[in-house]
Amino acid sequence: MHIHSDDSNEVDAERRYNRVLSTIYHQTSPMQRPGVTPEKIYLSLVAHGSYDRAGVKASLQATLDNDDAIAYEDEDGQLRFALLTEDSVDRFVAEYPEVAAHETIREFRGGYMTHVWSVSDEKVLEAVQMALDNDDCLAFGGGVRPKHVAMHCELQPGSLRDRLLTLTADGHLVKVWGVDVDQPGYPARRGYLPAGHPDATPPYTLSV
Fold it and tell me: Which one, 83, 103, 112, 166, has the greatest CB density within 10 A?
Protein backbone atom coordinates (compact mmCIF):
# COMPACT_ATOMS: atom_id res chain seq x y z
CA MET A 1 0.00 0.00 0.00
CA HIS A 2 1.34 3.42 -0.91
CA ILE A 3 1.36 5.86 2.00
CA HIS A 4 1.22 9.56 1.20
CA SER A 5 3.86 11.61 3.00
CA ASP A 6 3.40 15.26 3.93
CA ASP A 7 6.91 15.84 2.55
CA SER A 8 5.87 14.57 -0.88
CA ASN A 9 4.45 16.58 -3.75
CA GLU A 10 1.84 13.84 -4.07
CA VAL A 11 0.01 15.03 -1.00
CA ASP A 12 -3.26 16.72 -1.84
CA ALA A 13 -4.05 18.62 1.35
CA GLU A 14 -7.47 19.72 0.15
CA ARG A 15 -8.52 16.17 -0.74
CA ARG A 16 -7.23 14.84 2.58
CA TYR A 17 -9.08 17.60 4.43
CA ASN A 18 -12.32 16.72 2.65
CA ARG A 19 -11.76 13.02 3.36
CA VAL A 20 -11.44 13.82 7.07
CA LEU A 21 -14.70 15.79 7.00
CA SER A 22 -16.39 12.96 5.10
CA THR A 23 -15.14 10.40 7.60
CA ILE A 24 -16.44 12.43 10.54
CA TYR A 25 -19.78 12.69 8.77
CA HIS A 26 -20.08 8.96 8.07
CA GLN A 27 -18.84 7.95 11.51
CA THR A 28 -21.42 10.15 13.24
CA SER A 29 -24.54 9.09 11.34
CA PRO A 30 -27.85 8.85 13.25
CA MET A 31 -27.19 5.13 13.79
CA GLN A 32 -23.96 5.91 15.69
CA ARG A 33 -22.80 8.11 18.54
CA PRO A 34 -22.71 11.80 17.58
CA GLY A 35 -18.97 12.18 18.18
CA VAL A 36 -16.23 10.09 16.57
CA THR A 37 -12.86 9.42 18.20
CA PRO A 38 -9.60 10.31 16.45
CA GLU A 39 -8.58 6.64 16.53
CA LYS A 40 -11.58 5.67 14.39
CA ILE A 41 -10.63 8.37 11.91
CA TYR A 42 -7.03 7.14 11.84
CA LEU A 43 -8.27 3.58 11.40
CA SER A 44 -10.31 4.59 8.37
CA LEU A 45 -7.81 6.90 6.67
CA VAL A 46 -4.45 5.51 7.80
CA ALA A 47 -4.77 1.79 8.62
CA HIS A 48 -7.40 1.19 5.92
CA GLY A 49 -6.58 4.19 3.76
CA SER A 50 -3.67 5.86 2.00
CA TYR A 51 -2.67 8.72 4.30
CA ASP A 52 -0.14 8.95 7.09
CA ARG A 53 -1.11 9.71 10.67
CA ALA A 54 0.67 13.07 10.82
CA GLY A 55 -1.18 14.30 7.75
CA VAL A 56 -4.58 13.22 9.05
CA LYS A 57 -3.80 14.79 12.43
CA ALA A 58 -2.97 18.07 10.68
CA SER A 59 -6.25 17.93 8.76
CA LEU A 60 -8.18 17.24 11.96
CA GLN A 61 -6.66 20.34 13.52
CA ALA A 62 -7.53 22.29 10.38
CA THR A 63 -11.21 21.28 10.69
CA LEU A 64 -11.21 22.91 14.13
CA ASP A 65 -9.31 25.99 12.96
CA ASN A 66 -11.72 26.42 10.04
CA ASP A 67 -14.78 25.98 12.29
CA ASP A 68 -15.90 22.96 10.27
CA ALA A 69 -15.82 20.69 13.33
CA ILE A 70 -15.66 20.71 17.11
CA ALA A 71 -13.69 18.46 19.46
CA TYR A 72 -14.89 17.59 22.95
CA GLU A 73 -13.78 15.25 25.74
CA ASP A 74 -16.59 12.97 26.89
CA GLU A 75 -17.19 11.76 30.45
CA ASP A 76 -14.48 9.12 30.00
CA GLY A 77 -11.90 11.66 28.86
CA GLN A 78 -12.15 10.45 25.26
CA LEU A 79 -11.77 13.13 22.61
CA ARG A 80 -14.61 13.16 20.08
CA PHE A 81 -15.07 15.10 16.84
CA ALA A 82 -18.37 16.27 15.36
CA LEU A 83 -19.21 18.46 12.38
CA LEU A 84 -20.48 21.97 13.01
CA THR A 85 -23.81 21.49 11.27
CA GLU A 86 -27.25 22.05 12.78
CA ASP A 87 -28.20 18.35 12.90
CA SER A 88 -24.81 17.24 14.15
CA VAL A 89 -24.66 19.88 16.88
CA ASP A 90 -28.20 19.07 18.05
CA ARG A 91 -27.34 15.37 18.36
CA PHE A 92 -24.02 16.16 20.01
CA VAL A 93 -25.68 18.34 22.66
CA ALA A 94 -28.43 15.76 23.22
CA GLU A 95 -25.79 13.08 23.92
CA TYR A 96 -23.49 15.36 25.94
CA PRO A 97 -25.64 18.17 27.45
CA GLU A 98 -22.64 19.82 29.07
CA VAL A 99 -21.19 20.62 25.64
CA ALA A 100 -23.96 23.20 25.12
CA ALA A 101 -21.89 25.62 27.22
CA HIS A 102 -18.87 25.23 24.92
CA GLU A 103 -18.04 28.62 23.39
CA THR A 104 -17.95 27.25 19.85
CA ILE A 105 -21.38 25.64 20.27
CA ARG A 106 -22.85 28.83 21.73
CA GLU A 107 -21.43 30.88 18.88
CA PHE A 108 -22.70 28.41 16.28
CA ARG A 109 -26.18 28.48 17.76
CA GLY A 110 -26.17 32.27 17.79
CA GLY A 111 -26.56 32.43 21.55
CA TYR A 112 -23.40 34.40 22.23
CA MET A 113 -23.19 38.17 21.76
CA THR A 114 -24.93 39.40 18.61
CA HIS A 115 -27.22 36.97 16.78
CA VAL A 116 -25.74 35.58 13.59
CA TRP A 117 -28.35 37.12 11.25
CA SER A 118 -28.83 40.45 13.03
CA VAL A 119 -25.85 42.06 11.27
CA SER A 120 -26.45 43.06 7.64
CA ASP A 121 -24.55 41.54 4.72
CA GLU A 122 -23.12 44.98 4.00
CA LYS A 123 -21.64 45.18 7.51
CA VAL A 124 -20.08 41.74 7.19
CA LEU A 125 -18.59 42.59 3.79
CA GLU A 126 -17.27 45.86 5.21
CA ALA A 127 -15.63 43.87 8.02
CA VAL A 128 -14.04 41.56 5.44
CA GLN A 129 -12.55 44.55 3.62
CA MET A 130 -11.40 46.15 6.88
CA ALA A 131 -9.63 42.93 7.85
CA LEU A 132 -7.86 42.84 4.49
CA ASP A 133 -6.92 46.53 4.74
CA ASN A 134 -5.41 45.87 8.18
CA ASP A 135 -3.56 42.73 7.02
CA ASP A 136 -5.67 40.61 9.37
CA CYS A 137 -5.64 37.71 6.94
CA LEU A 138 -3.83 34.61 5.74
CA ALA A 139 -0.52 34.94 3.92
CA PHE A 140 0.03 34.51 0.18
CA GLY A 141 -3.29 36.04 -0.82
CA GLY A 142 -5.24 33.58 1.32
CA GLY A 143 -7.95 36.01 2.32
CA VAL A 144 -9.67 36.28 5.68
CA ARG A 145 -10.95 33.65 8.06
CA PRO A 146 -13.86 34.11 10.49
CA LYS A 147 -11.45 35.01 13.30
CA HIS A 148 -10.05 37.87 11.20
CA VAL A 149 -13.47 39.27 10.30
CA ALA A 150 -14.57 39.04 13.95
CA MET A 151 -11.97 41.68 14.81
CA HIS A 152 -13.96 44.20 12.79
CA CYS A 153 -17.63 43.42 13.49
CA GLU A 154 -20.01 42.38 16.28
CA LEU A 155 -20.16 38.69 15.42
CA GLN A 156 -17.99 35.91 16.78
CA PRO A 157 -16.00 33.51 14.53
CA GLY A 158 -18.45 30.64 14.92
CA SER A 159 -21.35 32.84 13.83
CA LEU A 160 -19.38 34.39 10.98
CA ARG A 161 -18.66 30.99 9.47
CA ASP A 162 -22.27 30.62 8.27
CA ARG A 163 -22.43 34.22 7.10
CA LEU A 164 -19.26 33.92 5.02
CA LEU A 165 -20.46 30.67 3.46
CA THR A 166 -23.80 32.28 2.57
CA LEU A 167 -22.10 35.33 1.07
CA THR A 168 -19.92 32.96 -0.95
CA ALA A 169 -22.95 31.07 -2.25
CA ASP A 170 -24.52 34.41 -3.20
CA GLY A 171 -21.44 35.38 -5.21
CA HIS A 172 -20.15 38.18 -2.96
CA LEU A 173 -17.11 36.22 -1.74
CA VAL A 174 -14.90 33.43 -3.04
CA LYS A 175 -13.09 30.73 -1.06
CA VAL A 176 -9.32 30.56 -1.44
CA TRP A 177 -6.36 28.74 0.07
CA GLY A 178 -3.75 30.63 2.05
CA VAL A 179 -1.09 30.05 4.69
CA ASP A 180 -1.53 30.64 8.42
CA VAL A 181 1.86 31.96 9.50
CA ASP A 182 0.66 32.21 13.11
CA GLN A 183 0.46 28.41 13.41
CA PRO A 184 3.41 25.99 13.74
CA GLY A 185 4.38 24.54 10.40
CA TYR A 186 2.55 27.29 8.49
CA PRO A 187 -0.46 25.09 7.59
CA ALA A 188 -2.74 25.73 4.63
CA ARG A 189 -6.05 27.28 5.62
CA ARG A 190 -9.25 28.18 3.79
CA GLY A 191 -10.03 31.88 3.61
CA TYR A 192 -12.37 34.28 1.82
CA LEU A 193 -11.83 37.17 -0.57
CA PRO A 194 -14.30 39.60 -2.16
CA ALA A 195 -15.46 38.49 -5.61
CA GLY A 196 -13.29 40.19 -8.21
CA HIS A 197 -10.29 40.53 -5.90
CA PRO A 198 -7.05 40.16 -7.91
CA ASP A 199 -5.90 37.27 -5.70
CA ALA A 200 -9.17 35.36 -6.14
CA THR A 201 -7.95 33.40 -9.14
CA PRO A 202 -7.09 29.74 -9.87
CA PRO A 203 -5.34 27.60 -8.80
CA TYR A 204 -6.02 28.85 -5.29
CA THR A 205 -9.74 29.54 -5.63
CA LEU A 206 -12.02 26.80 -4.29
CA SER A 207 -15.41 25.78 -5.61
CA VAL A 208 -18.44 26.75 -3.53
Answer: 83
